[in-house]
Every structure is written in C-alpha cells, then in structure tokens.
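Reviewers of the previous submission asked for a worked example of the structure-prediction workflow described in the proposal, so we include one complete record here. The input consisted solely of the amino acid sequence. No template or homolog information was supplied to the procedure at any stage.
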Amino acid sequence: MLLGALLVLLLLGGAGPASAHAALTSTDPGDGTVLRRAPARVTLTFSESVGLRDDSFRVLDPDGHRVRTGESGHADGRSETARVTLPGELGEGTYTVAWRVVSADSHPVSGAFTFSVGKPSQATAPVDTGPAEDPLTAALHKIARYLSYLAAALLVGTAAFAALCRPPDPAPLRRPLVAAWWTLLASTVALLVLRAPYEAGTGPSTALDPTALGDTLVSRPGVLLLVRLALLPPIALYLARTAHTTRATRTARLGRRTPLAAAVGVALAVGLALTWAAAEHASAGAQVPVAMTSAVLHLLATAVWLGGLAALLTLLRAGRPAPPAAVVARFSRTAFAAVTVLVVTGVYQSWRGLGSWQALTGSTYGRLLLAKVVLVAVLLGAAAVSRRWTSALLSAPAAVPAPGRVPERVPQPAGGPPPEEPPPARPPAPDGASALRRGLRRSVLAEAVVAAVVLAVTTVLTATPPGRTAEETVRAAGAADGVRPASVTTIPFEVGGTARGTVQITLDPGRTGDNAVQAVVFGPDGSLAAVPELRLAFTLPDKDVGPLQAELVDRGGYWSANTLTLPLPGVWTMKATVRVSEVDQVSEERRIRILP
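From that input alone, the workflow returned the following structure tokens.
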C-alpha cells in the first residue's frame, strides 16, 4: 500500500518547476521598460507575504556580471514586498534581475525580468539567473512530506481508535504506533535538513552546510519543524503512560483515560496539526484564523478516519482474534463523524483556494481537487460497504461466548454426570460471524488502499498553487497563450530597410473602464524619437467591439491620452500606427488582456 501510494505521489508530483504559491503581481521598474536614468532600487510586489533570503536578488549588468547591491528587505515594512537598493553608477544597457523568495506557505518561488537604462543593449550576453529547482532535492522533499503526513495520520488515528473504540486487546496496535512515531521523527529531521537546499534550489549535498542549516533553524518553516520535533517526546511519554501491562495476562492495554488525560492527548494532537497548518495554504491569504482552524480540524479528521482504518485493518488481520462487533460499530460511528468534519472543512478550503468556478478546470489546483473529490467518493463508497458489513455483523447471532463472559454452569449430581454415549460425529456448522469479519476485512483493506492514494494526492495538492494564486499569476505574467495583461507593451516597427524602432505603450490600470494611455517612441539606436503622428486603436473581436481610438496628444517626447474607455474585459487587439515621415507609416498589432 505504501509503495503504491509513493508511486502515485512521484507520478503526480514529478520533477518540474518549483511549486510556488506567492504570485508576483508587479515590479518596479516594470519588466522590459526603458528608463532615462538608473533606478535607485528594485521593488517586487506579491499576492501574499514572502520571506527573504540572503541571495533573494541577483542583479546582472549587460555583460552578465553581478552588480553589487545592498541588503534585501521589505518595502515600507509591507511583508508582501521585496526590495533591494542599487548602486548609483549603473551604466547604459539592459539589466537582468533574478529573484528568489519563500512564500508564506513555505514554498520557494523564483523568476527574472529585465529593464534598460538609456537604451536597450544591442546584444546581451548569456545570463545565468540561478537554479530554479534541483530534481533530486525536490523528489526527496516530496517523499519526506508524504511520509510525514502518513506517519501523523497513523499516529493520531491509531491512538484515537484505541481511545474511542476501546478494543479489548489493543496489543496489536503498539507496533503501528511505534512505527508511525519513528517515521514521523525521521521524516521531520529529513525535512529540516533538506529545507536549505529546497529553498535555494541546490542539490542534497549542500544540506549539511552549517551556515545554511543555521539560517533554516531561525526561519519560520524551520521553527515549525523544530516545534514538531519537540512535540514528539511528550507524545511518546503520553502513549507510554497511557499503556500499561497487566501482571496477570502480560497483555499491553491502552487503559481507560481520565478527562485530564484525554485533554492532554487532544492538545498534543492539535499542536501537531498546527505545525502543518501554520506552514501551508491556511497561513496565507484571506481569513487566516478561520482557515487555520479549518485546516487543523481537516487534518485531525483525516487522521482519525484514515489512521483508524489502518488500526481496524490491523485488528482484522488473519490469524488474530477478531475484534468484537461493538468495537467495529464504534469505529463506524467515529468515522462517520470524521467524514462530516472533512466535508464541511473541505468545502470551505476548496472555496478559499479556488476563488472561481473557472479555476476548477482551468488550474492544476482545481484539477487535482477534482481528482481528490472523485477518489474520496470512491472511498465513501467503500466505507458504505464496510458499514453494511458492520450492520450484518451486529445483527448476526454470536457463534461463541462474548469475550470476558463465562458460560453458564449446569448443576450436576455429587457423583458427577452419568456416562453418556458420545454423540455421532457431525460436520461443523459454518461460522457466519467469521465470514462477515472476512468480508469486513476485505472492504476495510480496499478503503485503506484508496485512502493512501487520497493522501498522496493531498500531499501534491498542498504543494500546488491555489486557484486564486494561479489567477494572480495569469494577471501578472500573462496566460499560457502569451497574451499579457495590458500594463506595459512594447511593439517593434520597421523604420526602413533593416532599421527597427519600438513603441512602449502603458495603460493604467489596464482594466475595464477609464484608462490613461502613455506611449514613448524609440529609434533604432534606442534613443527617444520624434514622429509626425502616432495612433492607437483597440478592438475586441469576440464581442465585435471597436475599433476604439485613443486620442493621443504629442506632449514633447511622449504621447498620451488622459482617458480611454474600454467597456469589457477580454483579449483586445491593440493596433499602433506610426507615421515615420510625411508619406510613410507602419502599423503593428498586439493582443493584450484587459482585466475586469
């Protein structure tokens, strides 16, 4: 079951671009802009708060050499921004800014953009913007994350099963509890060690670098992993103290818990769940307190259901005395309550993560969520079959005395019963209860297998940008078809022969309604150029709207229009017509996205 789930995890979350949940919404200077003078700083704005690294910014000059910059920090104390100061002696040409930050849900995000001072470079040297993601580090990190989820579900769920379902002989549950505890310990240590290379995008060989490891220990993800490690010894002590060995039977039993002991167990489980909730989707975005509460409840309900399934399967294993029907019935009721919590919290988290119905099929997050819903539906179907087996087991007549009960004794004469002839041999009657337990064991096994796959998909889902973030990314960087949001658009045009000029057009805010338009014309050498006439027209082909003319006025060095009204969102066609002489003109078109 574990190997199959790991295979699904690797297939769904194989090596690729780094999973990132903070979307870059704007840069200052803008990507591709040409500035008259060198900027004093570079500022990035994201869709959520980000953490900064020592190497969050790498600014490269036109020759590909690194520019010495100041320390990176947040702009005006706003956690959703990143800023670095530049030296004042930047020369003419095109500069590349490579950046790498850590989003609020602990996943790294990186990218690069360019700006030019004076005029763009005629030819740019190959630029190394740094690593995006090391495949081996990413794969090891994903495996460790999945094992930590699986171990936590087994640990919390098995302990909850023993406490809530009260099996008369919980000795078989000790082994999965111990295995889950050690697996959670090992996977958490692995996540802590891999954190630095995961954030930096480097190979596993850099994991034990003392400086990088020290930085990890004081970062928010590192602190949460340390908290998880600190909770494991109290959890082990709690399980050891609540389990005792009776001298008469030498059987390990998880004894009845007092209200105080139960409260301690719940507190430890909630604390463990918080180390995940505070490091993932719930910790960033809207309604953080509600989202954190929902995430904790969702994680605990998942553990109670899936971990309880594993515990029940352990007790139903062939060769062991079957658990009483009452134990199975208690788990059935517990699982039903856990599923109810899962549905309520899952609907809320889906609404919060998706943002729109379109994201359900138009984003990776939405498609993974659909896959998880289908798998959960299959899991619920298997659970329904298990409930029917449970009902049949409860209504079946007992084939043997119930555990703990002594068969009724019949008084006999003092001399003992008279000798009787042995009854004729008869074939043994079929044990209906045993058949029902075998059927229940098969259905619970099917549930556990599907549950492991659900857990794998959930692990991948937590490392996938939510639909809301994907929409922010589309708005900031353009959709997959290459249409960019209407903010700054550069259109090249031929001046004559092989000479080419460019028009840099800025729409503010690039949304429906009134927009301000500014256009700057650059000659073949990259310097400002004066032209007799510049016209802009906008058409929305899908709605048969346009052409709408922008009434541009020559302001001496640039052209502008105070108001251009674009009534509908969508992909517009912007046509720029540049008159380069009294008799020659050239027209070029670009598609731009106007946001609602």
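Residues 98 and 400 are 73 Å apart (CA to CA). We consider this example representative of the routine output the project will generate in years two and three.
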